[in-house]
Specification:
Blueprint: E1 12-15, E2 19-20, H1 22-41, H2 46-50, E3 60-61, H3 71-97, E4 106-110, E5 113-116, E6 119-122, E7 128-130, E8 135-139, H4 141-148, H5 155-173, H6 176-184, H7 189-218, H8 225-235, H9 238-246, H10 259-272
Helix pairs in contact: 3-5, 5-7, 5-8, 6-7, 7-10, 8-10
Length: 286
């Protein structure tokens, strides 16, 4: 992926090196971490855990000296800043064409644990978007897991992860997230899970929209990049995660979509570049 010459975003909030105080750690502990791991492996919604984890307020201390990661980590942080800037340029243009204003989100880099408006989260929860504060949260170590544990290497695979979370921000701005959350409160668990799947697949499609528009505007793609993105979408499908964690698959419990679904919707956005093609809620089949 061609990114080194790209613009860097001003909306990266670096909280790497921030530490949880002993008082805060006592409120969560290994039980919270294990619960997070279970939810992640089963394809669940991490906000359920972060809201029930450690108590908010105080307890987070900044490092006494500026955080400095390894050369590889700092390169990753630089890469994320460029991808974030690229999503800003893409969605600014798309919203402008639709007569709307795109409000840029912040992306918070953290290490180990972080406090957000959605609650307190451990790094094991993976990247997530918090609607109340309109921020994306990312521990860069997730990219190592993406390659080593999920078998999805490559910089475009990492860019897909960032673009997917920005897709949730777009849903929030368009009011989709509020409408879906309201619907989820009115239906049973199976139906609520299905609505979550629709949300996640739409975010995959929106990630594809970013890639399509960025390629047309700035020619970011290199040979093999599309395959990296599709492989990443497949690697974190609910069916693969469930089979890996417990040896069998329960489709009714899916909250993010199967590998095939995630690949299909990401590719749909990537090929079309048309946000109108991302209506997963009206699709006859996901």
């Amino acid at each position: 992926m061609r990114w080194e010459s790209g613009r860097r975003s001003k909306n990266v909030e670096d909280r790497r090196g921030f530490r949880v105080s002993p008082r805060m750690a006592a409120g969560g502990g290994i039980g919270t971490l294990l619960l997070v791991l279970v939810v992640v492996f089963l394809g669940g919604d991490p906000s359920v855990v972060v809201q029930q984890g450690l108590p908010p307020g105080g307890g987070v201390s900044a490092p006494t000296e500026p955080y400095q990661g390894s050369a590889a980590e700092e390169r990753l942080a630089d890469f994320v800043s460029v991808v974030l800037a690229d999503t800003e340029d893409t969605w600014q243009a798309i919203f402008r064409r639709g007569g709307q204003r795109y409000e840029e989100p912040n992306l918070v880099l953290f290490s180990g644990a972080v406090e957000s408006a959605c609650g307190f989260a451990q790094a094991a929860v993976g990247p997530f978007y918090c609607p109340p504060d309109r921020k994306v949260y990312l521990d860069l170590s997730f990219f190592q897991d993406l390659q080593a544990r999920f078998g999805a290497p490559g910089d475009f695979a990492q860019a897909y992860v960032v673009a997917h979370e920005i897709g949730h921000h777009v849903q929030n701005l368009l009011g989709i997230a509020d409408r879906v959350n309201e619907l989820r409160r009115r239906v049973d668990e199976t139906q609520a899970n299905q609505l979550s799947v629709m949300m996640e697949l739409q975010a995959d499609c929106l990630a594809g929209i970013w890639a399509n528009n960025a390629q047309r505007a700035r020619q970011i793609l290199e040979e093999g990049d599309i395959e990296e993105g599709l492989n990443a979408a497949s690697a974190i499908g609910d069916d693969r995660l469930q089979r890996r964690s417990r040896g069998y698959v329960t489709p009714d419990s899916f909250t993010h979509g199967s590998s095939a679904q995630r690949m299909r919707w990401f590719k749909r956005g990537l090929v079309s570049g048309d946000i109108g093609q991302c209506d997963t809620f009206d699709a006859k089949t996901l």
